[in-house]
């Protein structure tokens, strides 16, 4: 039984102050906050989700914000860079926008594509990539319109402690090797969004450590619960230990750590983010899983108030 993932479902990272996180991803990048909830394993901490208008798989970046937490170190066993796809001819808009907010960036070409590289306020490495594929993001905020808005993930760059083993796994998961350039090998999946993975060919020699400014895990797409169980059996048959299915309210998840030490998740596309609030009101209220609803008043006092706001 061979299987093929469509590509990235979501990427989850650890950041610092929650309002700084909201200001950057909503206020600067123009992504929609599609869910404001809590960390299921640590309910005194937020879990934010940002994406396109409806929070579709392949557009979602999620965050655990800890104000005052220690800084992590990006290194082997982690996602090094998260890349976003922007429409053709929109690079100049983004250059001006980053300059407007005094965000340093560099321009480069990678695999024939025009790229802007920069960091978020907490040290996460990001890229904007001009790319044809993908549906325009209909969400409009802070002057960012569909003709220039972020469409979703372009992909991610992985740092592996054992790159040849990570390469084997990517191919087991159905990604196809499509190119080599410098220190990178490029892989592609079938979808138009979240479909490109660049793998560093050699270990960096620096072991990544979890903390602010690092990616916690990368999640891959499963069509539904049945497909996810097939993935669980398939990954286990290839020698990996996989967790039981975890209910994450907006998708179900399984996790495993690959031989290069990167934490992988496989998440279901359904049910999505509109099953506990309407599409029109996504991200406007604090949503709690059922087991924490009885503690709502206590949690609301513990959590730092945040708001989505336009920045000047």
Automatic annotation (TrEMBL):
Keyword presence, Oxidoreductase: yes
A Pfam family the protein falls into: Glyoxalase
Keywords: Dioxygenase, Oxidoreductase
Single Gene Ontology MF annotation: dioxygenase activity
Keyword Oxidoreductase among UniProt keywords: yes
Source superkingdom: Bacteria
Transmembrane feature ranges: none
Domain annotation VOC: ranges: 7-131, 152-269
UniProt-recorded name of the protein: Ring-cleaving dioxygenase
Organism: Mesobacillus campisalis
